[in-house]
Amino acid sequence: MRQLSISFESKDASVQGTYLERLSTLLEHDLDFHGADTLYASHDAHSFPAKFPPQLPKKFINGLTEPGDVVLDPMMGSGTTILEAFLAERKALGFDIDPLAQLIVSVKTSPVDPDIIQRQGKRIVQDARASVTDQRQDLEVALEERWDSRSRKFVNYWFAPSTQVELLALRQEIEDIHEQRYRDYFDLVFSGVIITKSGGVSMALDLAHTRPHRAKIVHDHHGHLVLEADADHISASRLEILTKTLRSPIDEFEKKYLRPVAGIPHNFERIQPEIQPSDAQHLPLEEATVDLIVTSPPYAANAIDYMRAHKFSLVWMGYSIADLGQLRKQYIGGEAVSNIAFEQMPTPVRQVIQSIAERDEKKGRVLHRYYSEMVRTLEEMYRVLKPGAAAVVVVGSSRMRGMDTQTETCLAAIGESIGFDVPGIGIRHLDRDKRMMPASAKNGKRSQIQQRMHKEYVIGFYKPMQSD
Ligand SMILES: C[S@@+](CC[C@H](N)C(=O)[O-])C[C@H]1O[C@@H](n2cnc3c(N)ncnc32)[C@H](O)[C@@H]1O
After folding, report:
1. What residue's CA is closest to ligand 1, atom 8?
2. By percentage, how much of the chain surpasses pLDDT 90?
3. How far apart are CA 135 and CA 277, in angstroms?
4. How far is the CA of 458 from the centre of ligand 1 (A)?
């Protein structure tokens, strides 16, 4: 185990000294990374809201760990930390409850043979096109049999009939692939055909960035279906943006299937990350086994509704809408407050919850739920970290009923009550052009999103050695 007294020089000459000193120095560095390339390697393999820039985990991984050390992200999302740890030859452990997050991260870190991708991709496109032409009726029958009635209703609402036939033809070809890493690769490409900012091939006009609006088909231009937002539900200025041509899923798949492979690291010698479905509040890890955590938890009050967008592709991959709805309830920061275990809070956190509850009792409970989930998550982080190691936690504050939830100071207070030292809180000024910050159905007001978007905090939690 690393001793606190041993000094260390990282690749960055300004970061020297003990682990704790280096952590403090790194938190004072510029953490904005404006203008940095965030799309290198496989970081851009699939869209994902509220990623942090790869430079952020990279800085802490390089400054605080050595090759072979264990780096954990218990809420890995699109796996920015996991990929950076993998590239830096650390042992990466990644968890998330979101099945799409697991697929994205597995593919981003699983070397594949580009020639096989090329061959298989070409075959999928050819065979899917052939079955749309030759076996259309069979596909239509299979569409009726594929789902339970609720899931079928969802698919019918969000996908035009001709789109459904092509998507199923693609699914059948992908599901025939035996080797999992190749099947996963094409599942991810398939998902990327549906989940894009503009709702991909679905009838949703916006997906990755906001709550979806369903389009209606208004006219047929040169053989293309043109979709438009329902003007009753949307302002005239947004209506202009929210118009799209319904594209062929097979054509889109053909355009996209070679893209991710170009970025996936090809070195099979690296330490393969371990990716598992798990709740960050109950990690399947032994005590004192992790050298560094870099993570960003969800916002309070379901500010980013991951499942809302992710179910658009997951429903095609064997998940029912009912199961995905159940899973959504387990997301940290959800809005339901019945059957929730509420934790005792340190005084400053209790005061924030109380002042919001005075304005809106329900919102107070929603915030209490969030901080209770973060108590359990931080306790788990404390348990699995080695003494003398740190968790770097990136959070934004939200506003509830016009009041700041003070997430950074509340989480720091919770961490200290668990036993962490908090040597510093870094500030990140967000690059507004890059940040993807979708709003949930209930707080989709522009002003709230803007308020949330300016700043993020990078909290350093240090687990002291017994001798500290
Ligand atoms: C802000 S995102 C992480 C983004 C990530 N840093 C990246 O760069 O892509 C938060 C993630 O927490 C996950 N999450 C929510 N509740 C969770 C839970 N109970 N256990 C584990 N992960 C959870 C969400 O699915 C989401 O992927």
Report:
1. 51
2. 71
3. 37
4. 16
- With vertex at residue 409, the alpha carbon angle to CA 36 and CA 423, rounded to the nearest 5 degrees, is 70
Task: Give residue 446's pLDDT.
Answer: 44
In the chain, what's the furthest Cα-to-Cα distance?
A: 75
Asked if residue 7 has pLDDT above 90, the reply is no
In this structure, the residues whose C-beta lies within 6 A of any atom of ligand 1 are 48, 50-52, 75, 77-78, 80, 95-98, 101, 279-281, 296-298, 306, 330-332
**CA 331 / ligand 1 centre spacing (Å):** 8
Q: Where are the domains of the chain?
A: 8-99+273-306+318-463, 114-260
Cα-atom radius of gyration of the chain, to the nearest Å?
A: 23
Average pLDDT of span 395-416: 91
**Using 50, 70 and 90 to split pLDDT, how confident is the model at 218?**
low
Q: Identify the band that residue 438 occupies on the pLDDT scale cut at 50, 70 and 90.
A: very low
Mean pLDDT confidence for 417-442: 74
Nearest CA to ligand 1 atom 15: 331
Token pair for residue 300? 């309070």
Atom of ligand 1 nearest to the CA of 279: 20
The CATH number of 8-99+273-306+318-463, from 3.40.50.2300, 2.60.40.1470, 3.40.50.150, 3.20.20.80, is: 3.40.50.150
Gap from CA of 288 to ligand 1 centroid (Å): 22
Asked if residues 280 and 75 have their Cβ atoms less than 8 Å apart, the reply is yes
Contact 395, 297 (CB under 8 A): yes
Which ligand 1 atom is the nearest neighbour of the CA of 98?
25
Say if pTM beats, i.e. exceeds, 0.85.
yes
C-alpha span between 455 and 436 (Å, rounded): 13
Determine the atom of ligand 1 nearest the C-alpha atom of 80: 8
Residue 294 — pLDDT band, cuts 50, 70, 90?
very high
Mutate to test the pocket of ligand 1, among 48, 75, 278 (most ligand atoms within 8 A of CB): 75
Does residue 254 register a pLDDT over 60? yes
CB atoms within 10 A of CB 76: 27
* Among 49, 115, 52, residue whose Cα is nearest residue 83: 52
77 C-alpha to ligand 1 centroid (Å): 5
Angstrom distance (rounded) from CA 410 to CA 310:
30
pLDDT (tens digit per residue) in 71-105: 999 999 999 999 999 999 999 999 999 999 999 99
